[in-house]
Write a structure and sequence with these properties.
- The two termini are 31 Å apart.
- The chain is mainly α.
- It contains 23 helices and no strands.
- It has one domain.
């Protein structure tokens, strides 16, 4: 479906019929606690379903146990190798670009504040990291794999949030649309795909066309398994740029929830970074990846030293990328170090636990791809649709002279500055 403001607005009225019906039935029968207890024993593809599992849950699991029949498994394998080759960089992009991007959307920050205990921000980051690692394992979709059951549970988790917010009258659907609507689910898909690729580009990581395409494709498959209507979602990186730019510009703005979530994120990673001397690296990296305007909205602290040092990171990463391309041994060592770093980060967040994706019974009280040597992927230019919206009388962007995509701050500043703060959830 072509990406247009009108089409995106229609997506705000739609949730996920299958998951919503399942969750509503479980709550109506008073079986949520029983379901959560039993599902702790269903962790891998091929595990027998627990005795006593409600029939509505059995029907849901049977309907969602296989990936879409259109999946190109060669592209999925390319995505897996891309993740192996760039795992530490992808983890950095997810932590310091994608998560803050969620927080700079007031209505999304409101959802997260209402459904995740702010005193335990590591839970969300650990669950997100674990989910990504599950996806990129060789057996992700095979017997014994852990990704498919995780996706089935996350989809029900989203449906339970919709159920709670509607039941408790805590969400103004006339203003904000359906909680975790199709537009927001696709927006989240963009944050974990093209916005991660944008962050890699900004960090100076070499990405091939095939790698970028496969990584986006993998998250398109994930979106389908999480209840996204793939007939309305972007099918390639060009459409993803249109959707991402329009979505972010439409909703970005400051909010108290966004500030609180960002502060918790920074404190969390400052605990992960050994010692205190390098603590300012965390906010400096967030500021570098999201831009000054968005960082100021989120009240990311400034550092007179590290705000100037972090932009040098692309030069250092360029050296390691050069070594990997020149030496198979260096590539193996660097990839191994990256894997160890990613495991260390995830184990620090999970504290050695397996994160369980359970349906909450209440809300909070308050609110290595082989690279062609001469090829390097560059992000699609800023959407021409965005230029049309922000400059209705002007000329569309010149496709013959594309520029690097704007960071979120540039997108925000190109929009109506008055509208940037006229957002839901008290922006």
């Amino acid at each position: 479906m072509p990406v247009t403001p009108e089409a995106m607005a229609a997506l705000r009225l739609r949730g996920d019929d299958l998951a919503d019906a399942t969750v509503d039935a479980l709550f109506a029968a008073g079986e949520i606690g029983h379901f959560n207890t039993l599902m702790r024993w269903f962790e891998r593809v091929g595990d027998p379903l627990p005795e006593g599992l409600p029939q509505v849950a059995r029907d849901y699991l049977a309907a969602t146990m296989t990936p879409p029949d259109w999946v190109d498994w060669d592209r999925m394998e390319t995505a897996r190798m891309f993740f192996i080759d760039n795992n530490v960089h992808i983890s950095t992009a997810l932590s310091f670009a994608s998560m803050p991007a969620c927080y700079m959307l007031p209505h999304v920050a409101k959802l997260l504040a209402a459904t995740h205990a702010l005193d335990y921000p590591s839970n969300r980051m650990a669950a997100t990291g674990q989910f990504t690692v599950y996806l990129m394992r060789p057996d992700a979709f095979e017997a014994g794999g852990t990704f498919v059951p995780a996706a089935q549970k996350v989809r029900l988790l989203h449906a339970s949030i919709r159920h709670h917010l509607r039941r408790e009258g805590a969400w103004d659907e006339a203003t904000w649309g359906v909680p975790i609507c199709q537009e927001d689910m696709i927006g989240g898909q963009m944050m974990f795909s093209i916005q991660v690729l944008d962050a890699l580009h900004r960090l100076g990581v070499h990405v091939t066309e095939a790698g970028a395409d496969a990584y986006f494709y993998a998250w398109r498959v994930v979106g389908a398994m999480l209840g996204v209507d793939t007939g309305t979602a972007p099918v390639d990186l060009s459409e993803a740029r249109d959707f991402s730019d329009l979505y972010m510009t439409k909703f970005m703005g400051p909010s108290e929830a966004g500030v609180s979530l960002t502060r918790q994120l920074i404190e969390l990673y400052e605990e992960v970074v050994p010692g205190t001397l390098l603590d300012p690296v965390v906010p400096a990296l967030i500021r570098y990846l999201v831009g000054d305007t968005a960082a100021d909205w989120l009240q990311v602290p400034r550092s007179a030293v590290f705000d100037h040092l972090v932009p040098v990171a692309p030069l250092l990463l360029g050296v390691t990328e050069h070594l990997k391309e020149r030496s198979p041994l260096a590539a193996m060592v660097i990839d191994r170090l990256g894997a160890v770093t990613t495991r260390f980060e995830l184990s620090s967040l999970t504290r050695g636990r397996v994160m369980h994706y359970a349906i909450p019974d209440h809300l909070k009280d308050e609110y290595g791809v082989d690279r062609p040597r001469d090829e390097r992927w560059t992000p699609p230019p800023v959407s021409a649709l965005l230029a049309d919206l922000t400059n209705p009388g002007g000329n569309p962007a010149d496709p013959a002279n594309p520029a690097d995509p704007a960071d979120p701050a540039d997108l925000a500043e190109s929009a109506d500055p008055a509208g940037a703060t006229d957002q839901p959830a008290g922006a």
